[in-house]
# Entry
Amino acid sequence: MNSHISDRIQSVNQQIEAACEQAGRSRDSVQLLAVSKTRSADEVRSAVEQGLTHFGENYLQEALDKIEALSDLELEWHFIGPIQSNKTRPIAEHFDWVHSVDRLKIGQRLSEQRPDGMAPLNICLQVNISREESKSGCDPDEAPALAKTLSELPGVRLRGLMAIPAATDDPAEQHRAFADLRQLLEQIRTELPDLDTLSMGMSGDLIPAIEEGATIVRIGTALFGPRAPKPATTID
Ligand SMILES: *Cc1c(COP(=O)(O)O)cnc(C)c1O
# Structure
């Protein structure tokens, strides 16, 4: 098992390096976030032994169990799934980053519920960049005003934007969606110059994402292999 994951990590790192080189960017400018949803704590531990340190989770209860099981390790945990407002407290208490803030109420609750003595919670505003019906993420037109308000909350630190563009195999369309998110960040940065994060790119499109400026790529399948269907017990 270990050899498989080490081969996959190596291959993903090679893709990131090649894309950085192609784009004239330094390798340090892109963070690999290993998306460990549905993977066991033991699988995450193997990935840590291979050098990975940043993990992304979508399902709260599953994530809390893993964070607890791996509390002997120095890891950075990112929440990347849809958020119900009654689930914000454990997210504020146990995570370092949240990529999926798409409305003010969620940002306000995370800010209020971030425990005293912890650094502000890093957050990204999730944008529905492809303007898909019934998709998570705020409307791109609303992003600048929402970003401004989120940036004023004391318990969170707005870092940038996140998107999951419409699925497509067409490289031109992949590039267009990522470029749209980058341009939106550039526009918002005229008012909020500290924003430094573009969370975009998954296993199938990490190269165009990096070429368009991704600073965090969220990679699951390419690191851990295909996911089994989510077991019913992890629904929360
Ligand atoms: C599952 C997931 C990923 C990883 O997807 P892969 O295609 O397995 O790399 C990235 N981002 C989000 C928000 C996800 O839910």
